[in-house]
Amino acid sequence: MHIHNLSLHNSVLNTFLSEIRNIHVQKDSMRFRRNIERIGEILGYEMSKSLHYKSSIIETPLGHCDIHLIDNNLVLCSVLRAGIPLHNGLLNYFDASENAFISAYRHHKNHSDSFDIVVEYLACPSLENKTLILADPMLATGQSMVATFEALKPYGNPKEVHLISVIGTKEGIDYVNKHFNDSTHLWIAAIDETLNDKSYIIPGLGDAGDLAFGEKLQK
């Protein structure tokens, strides 16, 4: 798997990362959502450099212009609910893409720290011979990313796969690396060192879904 860690080079991305992590700034849910969206735009822009392009002739008011445009058939799939702002950021740049949505959550048996990933809802177009962009903001254990990809398999065999995350861990990336082929690309804004005993990223930012949309009752 090809790993593209954008935090290795300083950019304006640092500002948005600092705000979604900052315990005082992240309390503004609207600003949190917008910062995730902006990070999605940056990740999408960097990812776009690896796509395929074809020459197109554009007619202008004064003549013709030869320009190279994206030639991939894109399907953008986000993991609900935390992935919605990230999805919006990517969709701002890939507005012609098809869209898929999948729900995945941690189910803790008897309120224990261990959990299974439960997938309940999926809406997806054909993925056959297309470029799949699978977006999940937090790559903690990597189990959600793998579970959602497995759930998508009946919809066709994508030609290319790009994974998009905001913050991940080395453990999660190692797990994902074992379940995706060598041609898969991971685009990530920051990689943290470890997980706590509840499998949350440290230092991370907390629960991205709750910060974006409010706290939820646990099943």
What does this molecule look like?
The chain is α/β, with parallel strands linked by helices and 219 residues long. It has a single domain (2-50, 73-213), classed as Rossmann fold (3-Layer(aba) Sandwich). Helix content is 30%, strand content 34%. It has helices at 13-21, 29-48, 84-93, 143-152, 170-179, 208-213; strands at 2-5, 53-60, 63-70, 74-80, 98-107, 116-123, 131-135, 138-139, 160-169, 185-192, 194-195, 201-202. Strands 1, 4, 5, 6, 7, 8, 9 and 10 form an eight-stranded mixed sheet that branches. Strand 4, helix 3 and strand 5 (98-107) form a beta-alpha-beta unit. Helix 2 (29-48) packs across helix 3 (84-93). The model has no long low-confidence stretch (mean pLDDT 93).
Number of strands: 12
Q: Which range does the strand content fall in?
A: 25-35%
Please estimate the helix content: 25-40%
Give the C-alpha Rg: 18 Å
Distance between the termini: 35 Å
Task: Characterize the biggest β-sheet.
Answer: 8 strands, mixed
Specify the overall morphology.
globular
Order of helices and strands: EHHEEEHEEEEHEHEEEH
